[in-house]
Write a structure and sequence with these properties.
The complex is a heterodimer of chains A (about 240) and B (about 80). Chain A has about 240 residues and is α/β, with parallel strands linked by helices. Chain A has a single domain, classed as Rossmann fold (3-Layer(aba) Sandwich). Chain A has 5 helices and 11 strands. In chain A, helix 2 links the parallel strand 3 and strand 4. Chain B is of the alpha+beta class. Chain B has one domain: Phosphoribosylformylglycinamidine synthase subunit PurS (Mth169, Chain: A, 2-Layer Sandwich), CATH 3.30.1280.10. Chain B contains 2 helices and 3 strands, in the order βαβαβ. Chain B has a 3-stranded antiparallel beta sheet with strand order 2-1-3, with helices on one face. Classes of the chains: A alpha/beta (about 240), B alpha+beta (about 80). The interface between A and B is medium-sized, with 20 and 13 residues.
Chain lengths: ~240, ~80
């Protein structure tokens, strides 16, 4: 099973992502330069964190026009799994693959630390075997991670169970104090209506080994692997 | 041809930078300041003035220069030599 890790100029978590994925049984990960135009032969696509194009204009605003993004849009439309972490989430929103936008943290501070997130549903290829209420401890590191959506969009996201992760406290309660960046309704990660595109501000790629402080991030990648195996089995 | 584009956060979007600047202005002896919103200002020079240029510019304002989810934009033509 082969994951593509897209490298934009300014990506800086591409190594973290490949290291995390390569640690999983039966998985290999390959870098794909953003100037390339095809993602044929890959089972899943990762948009890593970083500061693509220096975050000029808006985070992700320029990266969304990189040549590879045409292929990302096509593969996403065909149902392939796409995960965007941090800057990758910002790029997915700018590209219109995910609704809403990520704006400056309410505190105006860059947040850097471990956040507890609560899984809202196991009905997604990214949260298999993680029943609602499962807590994942994941690192956050961003200045523009405040998820914005207007009331109509929030209603829509809730109605279609597209919110996969919310910031919560250690007991699993979603509260203002557990919200590191001021995100609407403590939203940490959402998927698209088709449930095959997932964006999140926390870094599962930096939490894949106990010695890094948490291995909860690996559960998200293992879920993707399991979902892809299921797709292959159905196709066979 | 010279243009200016002003991008501002939509009213529904919190602008913590603007709020911080408003507080600083009030602190510096201007309690009259009710609100500050911070946006972006772009000056653009381009060659040619073909028909259809304006609609192309508006499209790129929506696609690249602003994010319609969180921002509004205003596109203005500046006369040569003037502001």
């Amino acid at each position: 099973m082969k994951f593509a890790v897209i490298r934009f100029p300014g990506s800086n978590c591409d190594q973290d992502c490949t290291a995390a994925l390569s640690g999983l049984t039966g998985v290999s990960a390959e870098f794909v330069w953003h100037k390339q135009k095809s993602l044929a032969g890959f089972d899943a696509i990762v948009l890593p964190g970083g500061f693509s194009y220096g975050d000029y204009l808006r985070c992700g605003a320029i990266a969304r026009f990189s040549p590879i993004m045409t292929a990302v849009l096509e593969e996403a439309a065909a149902g392939k799994l796409v995960i965007g972490v941090c800057n990758g989430f910002q790029i997915l929103c700018e590209a219109g693959l995910l609704p809403g936008a990520l704006v400056r943290n309410r505190s105006l501070r860059f947040v850097c630390g471990i956040a507890t997130t609560r899984v809202e549903t196991d009905d997604s290829p990214f949260t298999l075997r993680m029943p609602r209420g499962t807590l994942l401890r994941l690192p956050v590191a961003h200045g523009e991670g405040c998820f914005f959506a207007d009331k109509a969009l929030l209603r829509d996201l809730n109605e279609h169970r597209q919110v996969l992760l919310r910031y919560a406290d250690a007991s699993g309660a979603v509260s203002a104090t557990a919200n590191p960046n001021g995100s609407a309704e403590n939203i940490a990660g959402i998927c698209n209506r088709g449930r095959n595109v997932f964006g999140l501000m926390p870094h599962p790629d930096r939490a894949c080994e106990a010695r890094l402080g948490s291995s909860d991030g690996a559960r998200i990648f293992r879920s993707m692997v399991q979902a892809i195996e299921g797709q292959h089995a159905r196709a066979a | 041809m010279k243009l200016k584009v002003i991008v501002t956060p939509k009213a529904a979007v919190l602008d913590p930078q603007g709020a911080a600047v408003r507080d600083a202005m009030q602190h510096l002896g201007m309690p009259e300041v009710r609100s500050v919103r911070i946006g972006k200002y772009l000056e653009i020079e381009l060659d040619g003035d073909e028909p259809g240029m304006e609609s192309r510019l508006h499209r790129i304002c929506r696609d690249l220069l602003s994010n319609p989810v969180i921002e509004d934009y205003e596109l203005k033509t500046m006369s040569e030599g003037g502001a």
